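BUG: 3D viewer hangs when loading the predicted structure for this chain

Environment: internal workstation, default settings.
Expected: structure renders.
Actual: progress bar stalls at 90%.

Input used:
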Amino acid sequence: MSLPDTDSQTTPTFLDEAALKELAALLDETHPQVALAAFQSVDDSDAAVFLVMCSQLNTENALAAHAGKLFAQLPFDKQVSIAEKVATTETVDSESAKRIWNEQIAKIKEAIEKTTFLGEGTANLAKLLSYMDVTEQNELLEALGEKQPGMVNSVSEQLLTFEDLGNLGDEAIKTILQVLDKPTLALALYNAPTAVHDRFFENMSASQAEAVEAETAKLTFEQTQIADTARHSVVSLVRNFAAKDLLKIG
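Structure tokens produced before the viewer hung:
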């Protein structure tokens, strides 16, 4: 059997729309690491056939996206081996294709049954840390940051988001406004959620609001693309001030 061509009518019967939707739904509900574990022991030749079928046979590209993400997470040496097989394999026996397809789905289902998913790790850690005061949180995150800086950033963002600033009291907002420079503030508030935008402007003097609006009007397109960076800076400032008991966030 030739590997299916999206422009042809040679799609084998076992890969009808129902089969494609079944696999897409299965992968949608499966944690990427579980799917990856189910794929690690697959023969590279079989893996190549399975990935090509996934990438070519779904008109909505749902399976192609799953296949691409799965391939991207494999160890580099396995990626190289599978890539070679993909580039050199253009036909496969129909029964072999069906076997590969069914075996891989069975492996994924087996991996799901053997796995208890605890949820996203950083979200779990953020929830635990939420029961600590900010000073304790920062101490622990600082220690973790020496080994896992990326993880710490993710946890910090979940402990206090920019959207959460809309719930700060007036005194906390005023404290932030005293120390934030106008360019950072203008960029952070650019297209910000209405609740956050309004809380800041409610606590500005007329002259301060006018200055921020003038700064916003000067923003270039390139600057607006890094608004999230400015928002992260504001959130970090709030957390640091809270840790020093200079403002209250809860």
